[in-house]
Specification:
about 80 residues; alpha+beta; 4-stranded mixed sheet; 3 helices; 4 strands; about 40% helix
Length: about 80
């Protein structure tokens, strides 16, 4: 199971972006999903930076295993989870 979050519709609303990111991470934890795909889009790169800063927060970082930036598509970030 892979969860997907497309941020194109809310790219300019900071609080809403954080809420959507938190919701998808919490859903992945609840469902024990191995992967979340976050699509900030290409644009200027500011939204991707925002997403990466969110994922670096201590409370969020404790929930996932690693973050992978898609080397073929700049506008995509994968968050990998490891479940025992």
């Amino acid at each position: 199971m892979k969860l997907k979050l497309d941020l194109h519709d809310i790219y300019n609303r900071g609080e809403e972006i954080d809420r959507a990111l938190r919701a998808v991470i919490d859903e992945a934890v609840a469902k024990k999903a191995p992967l979340v795909e976050i699509i900030p889009g290409k644009g200027s790169g500011q939204l991707k930076k925002h997403v990466l800063r969110f994922l670096e927060r201590k409370d969020v970082k404790a929930l996932y295993h690693r973050v992978e930036k898609d080397k073929d598509n700049f506008g995509r970030v994968f968050v990998h989870f490891r479940w025992k």
